[in-house]
Design goal:
This protein has about 200 residues and is of the alpha+beta class. It has 2 domains: about 100 residues, BMC (bacterial microcompartment) domain (Alpha-Beta Plaits, 2-Layer Sandwich), CATH 3.30.70.1710; about 90 residues, BMC (bacterial microcompartment) domain (Alpha-Beta Plaits). Helix content is about 35%, strand content about 30%. The protein is built from 6 helices and 8 strands. The strands form 2 sheets. It has a 4-stranded antiparallel sheet, with helices on both faces. Strands 5-6-8-7 form a 4-stranded antiparallel sheet, with helices on both faces. The protein is elongated and about 50 Å long. The two termini are about 25 Å apart. The mean pLDDT is about 95.
């Protein structure tokens, strides 16, 4: 079978806000703060179940996310031990005959900072995301990328770099999306780190 590797994204330490965001309506095993994790997306979509089976049998990782769309399947596995997560990725690559370098490169499709937003806009953002509230006077960073699953890594790097509030992150669909709120200086720092992360996987 011919496989396409859409995303292969290793996160060394999942930041608390990202871990908690994933856990809010997670259907499988919630990640813990500072777990290592791997987001992987392949074509054909339903083959992701075979990859999950391989990863769970070969290592001690736990399954956090599994999504099957029309064309692509995505998984997220995590564990406190980085070695377990890396070994899970290695087992999947070996089974598919792919290499990490075969992954599709990340492309930012939206990169926007809004400074000192108005109250109505803050209310709208708060309604959009299941994360933290955004209020009047906050500055806001909005980013989108293709493939979508890279947004987990981009978000994690932004959260490492700045004291900001995670409002929304999506890692599936046509594009991944992230919305962060905070002071102007912290949002600028988060935006710089996010752009660098996107470039690293691009």
């Amino acid at each position: 079978m011919s496989f396409e590797l859409r995303t292969y994204s290793f996160i060394d330490q999942m930041q608390p806000q990202l871990a908690q965001y994933i856990a809010k309506d997670n259907k499988v095993f919630d990640p813990s703060e500072y777990d290592s994790c791997l987001f992987l997306e392949i074509h054909p979509a339903m083959e992701i179940h075979r990859m999950v089976d391989l990863a769970l049998k070969a290592t001690r990782v736990r399954l956090g996310v599994i999504i099957t769309e029309r064309r692509f399947g995505q998984l997220e596995v995590h564990h406190p031990d980085q070695g377990e997560v890396r070994e899970a990725g290695r087992a999947i690559l070996e089974a598919t005959g792919l290499k990490e370098d075969d992954r599709v490169r990340c492309k930012l499709t939206t990169n926007m900072v809004l400074r000192s937003i108005e109250r109505d806009h803050g209310i709208a953002f708060t309604g959009l995301g299941k994360g933290n509230m955004i209020v009047a006077g906050d500055s806001v960073l909005i980013m989108e990328c293709e493939p979508a699953a890279y947004m987990a890594y981009i978000t994690n790097e932004a959260l490492k770099a700045a004291n900001v509030k995670l409002n929304l992150v999506t890692t599936w669909g046509a594009t991944g999306r992230m919305i962060l709120g905070g002071t102007e200086a912290e949002i600028d720092a988060a935006a710089e780190a996010a752009r660098a992360a996107a470039k690293e996987v691009g």
